[in-house]
Input
Amino acid sequence: MTQKHLSVLDISNAGISDAIPHSFWNSSLWSILYYLDMSHNMINGTIPNVSILFDNLSLIDLSHNFLEGVIPSFLRNTVPALYLNNNKFSKGLFPFLCPHIHTPLSALDLSNNFFSEKLPDCWSYFGQLTSLHLENNSLWGSLPMSMGALDKLFGLHLSNNNLSGSLPISLLNCKTLTYLDLANNSLIGHIPPDIGHSFRNLTILNLQSNRFVGVLPASFCDLSFLHILDLSNNYISGTIPSCLYKLVTMAILTTKEIEEVTLDSDEEHMMWKRNEQTFDGITSVTVLKGIDISNNKLEGQIPEGISSLIGLKFLNLSRNNLTGPIMSAIGQLTSLESLDLSHNHLSGKIPQSLTQISSLSTFDISDNNLIGEIPISTQLQSFDASSYMGNPGLCGTPLPKCANDEAPAIAPNGDVKQDKIDDFKLGLYISVVLGFIVGFWGVCGTLVVKRSWRHAYFRFYEDTRDKIYVIWVVNIARAWRRS
Output
């Protein structure tokens, strides 16, 4: 309280477990302070609604504490960045967000609190906002039309609330959006057909677990900077656009040298390998690329062009009505760590190219109409049978062996079956032929090669012939005498 030249006050992560003294808000600090960070403590109690003008303050961070009650309006009067997330605030959202004067706020984070009010329709007073976090509350009502006035907004985070209604057309005025997260609400209606034309800078689009209907707009293919597309758990029908190969960022293998995308928050929550996980908003999510359109009503074939998106880390098209074969060039997706095509009507054989993906840690093609032998690879045989179940025509490890790989069966009486008898006959015939050839050439070949043996053989032959001839003549003569 006695400091005269203090410009930065950072007492974050200090283990403080106390209420903020009332005198703190009436001190002379506010005329000289530039930066205030008291986050990640155990500070409790309420903040009084006093009248303070911050002459130089650029940031107030009171996040990750146990503050409760009403958000006082003075906190948003002249501060560009205000972080009150991860507290226990539950009241005063309407007066705070409807100041009836234009505010300088560029970053506002009220996420992870206990607000259960209707989302106010006063956003025209927040024209400088670039980042808005209201996720993980219990806000209800529809998205207000005045949100279209946030034409400088980069990140809009409204997930895990009770919002309803359709997306307002005015939202398409927010052309600078790079992160749009409306997941886990009760939003209805069609996805705007011009979404890809209006949000050309989108990096992450998360609309999962809502009630959207209709077809996927072809304009999705114009989202050339898209890293993550999550439309899972909706009622979207029609086919997957064949032009998804135009998502050029997903077609680039990510390296630190070529990929640098900065999001507008420290943490992001994404469905990854069937679990919701937390990622660092500046590093991890920027290298995570994937498509999740699972649990909808999509039909038709999987476009072959998806196999050109070689930067994909995850691909989930499960629980739809997709038909036809798995794209033959799927092996090009060598960065895939998670692949789920289960619960569809896919047919044909598993492409041999799938053996080229060595990074898979999550894999599921169960409950389809696939046939044939599972291709042999260290990766594919490492998954248990549940990854392949529900395909009556599939065989091979880890499923039962294919019919042509089984050992000859033995009849109940101990006799070998017909196929074994045939093998025995074939062996016998071969042995006889080889024996004849060896015996014949063993004798005749020797006579041809050795002259002395050949002469001896023919002398023996002539002597034997002469003896037989003499015996025959003598026997004839004896017969004549007797007669």
User: Anything to note?
Assistant: Confidence is low (pLDDT under 50) at residues 256-266, 279-284, 407-417. The two ends are 162 Å apart (CA to CA). The CA atoms of residues 245 and 305 lie 5 Å apart.
